[in-house]
Design a protein that fits this description.
The complex is a heterodimer.
Chain A (H helix, E strand, L loop, with lengths): L1 E6 L3 E6 L3 H13 L6 E3 L6 H6 L14 H4 L2 E4 L13 H14 L3 E2 L12 E3 L6 H18 L1
Antiparallel strand pairs in A: 1-2, 3-4, 4-6, 5-6
Helix pairs in contact in A: 1-4
Chain B lengths: L1 H23 L8 E4 L2 E3 L4 E12 L2 E11 L5 E8 L2 E6 L7 E7 L3 E6 L12 E5 L6
Classes of the chains: A alpha+beta, B alpha+beta.
Chain lengths: 149, 137
C-alpha cells in the first residue's frame, strides 16, 4: 500500500509501506556513516513516467507501468554528483558509505544493471510478483490518497 | 627486446606530445553547440548524465547546464571562460553537480572533469560529452 512520506531533497512524496521503513533505515545507516542522503526521485505518479518516455529520440526509458518508481519501491539519490568536502569526506568515501548503508538496509543497487549500463543513483527493493499489478495498485492508491487531499 | 621497449617508449612520448600540442593549438573548432552524455535506463525509467549547451551572448560565452541523477534537474546558466578550445565554468552550490568543470572541445565532443571528485554517470572521472543533439530533441 502506498503511504505518504517526506524525504530530504524532494520533500513530500509516496512510497510503498513495505519499502518506506527500508528507506528510513537507509537514511539512518548513511547518517551513521557520515552522509546525509539527498533524494532526487521516489514515487512517480500517473503520467510522469510516460512524460519521461515521451522523447522519441532517446533510448526509451521504462515503458509506463513497469518501473519500480511507479510502484513506490525505488528511490534515486545524489551519488556521482557528490564531491569532495573540504576537510571532510571525499566523493568516493561518501559513495562507499552510501553503498554500505544500502546493503545494511537490504536495498538493491542500480549500479549493478548491465544493459544498457549502470544506474548508480538508483536504489530499490523488488518484492517480486507481477510488476504491472504492483504498479496498478500503487497508482490506484495514489489517486485515492491525492483525491482525499 | 631493449630496442623494442625503447621504440614503444618513444612512440608513446611522441603521441603524448602530439596530443598536448593538439590541445594547445588553436584548431578551427566551433566551440558553441550541445554536448551531452544524457541517457535513459529502461529498467528503472531513470534519466542520467549531463548536458552542456555552449552559446554566445552579449556578455560572452554562457553555458546552459542540466544534470540528471534519476530525474532531470532544473537547468542552470553560468558564464564560461573559453580560450581556444579549452572551456571552464563554475556551477553554483545546488542539489546536483556543482563547482568547477574544465574541459577541451573538439569537433566531436567535450572531454573534461570536475575538479572536486564528482563522477560521470558511468562512474568515471572524465566526462565524455558527445557533440550533437540534445537528449530532449
Amino acid at each position: 500500500m502506498l503511504i505518504a512520506t517526506n524525504l530530504p531533497g524532494i520533500g513530500n512524496t509516496y512510497l510503498d509501506s513495505r519499502f518506506s521503513p527500508m528507506v528510513q533505515q537507509f537514511i539512518s545507516e548513511a547518517r551513521t556513516r557520515g552522509v546525509n542522503l539527498t533524494f532526487n526521485e521516489a514515487f512517480r505518479p500517473p503520467g510522469y513516467q510516460a512524460m519521461l518516455r515521451g522523447n522519441p529520440a532517446a533510448i526509451t526509458p521504462a515503458a509506463a507501468g513497469s518501473s519500480l518508481h511507479e510502484a513506490g519501491f525505488a528511490v534515486d539519490v545524489n551519488f556521482d554528483s557528490l564531491g569532495n568536502i573540504p576537510g571532510g569526506m571525499t566523493g568516493d568515501q561518501q559513495r562507499q558509505a552510501i553503498l554500505a548503508a544500502a546493503t545494511a538496509a537490504q536495498l538493491s543497487w542500480g549500479g549493478q544493471f548491465v544493459h544498457p549500463g549502470p544506474d548508480r543513483p538508483h536504489f530499490y527493493y523488488d518484492p517480486g510478483g507481477d510488476r504491472q499489478a504492483l504498479v496498478r495498485q500503487a497508482q490506484a492508491d495514489y489517486r485515492r490518497i491525492a483525491g482525499r487531499q | 627486446m631493449k630496442s623494442l621497449v625503447i621504440s614503444i617508449f618513444l612512440a608513446a612520448a611522441v603521441y603524448a606530445l602530439h596530443s598536448e600540442a593538439a590541445a594547445n593549438e588553436s584548431p578551427r573548432v566551433r566551440v558553441t553547440g550541445i554536448y551531452s552524455d544524457m541517457r535513459s535506463v529502461p529498467e528503472s525509467g531513470d534519466i542520467l548524465g549531463i548536458e552542456v549547451f555552449v552559446l554566445l551572448s552579449r556578455s560572452g560565452y554562457q553555458v546552459v547546464f542540466q544534470d540528471a541523477e534519476g530525474s532531470p534537474n532544473v537547468p542552470t546558466i553560468v558564464p564560461a571562460k573559453i580560450e581556444k578550445n579549452r572551456i571552464e565554468f563554475d556551477l553554483p552550490e545546488r542539489q546536483g553537480y556543482s563547482g568547477k568543470f574544465i574541459g577541451v572541445i573538439t569537433n566531436y565532443d567535450m572531454r573534461g572533469e570536475f575538479t572536486n571528485g564528482q563522477l560521470s554517470s558511468s562512474g568515471k572521472k572524465t566526462f565524455i560529452l558527445k557533440r550533437g543533439k540534445s537528449y530532449w530533441q
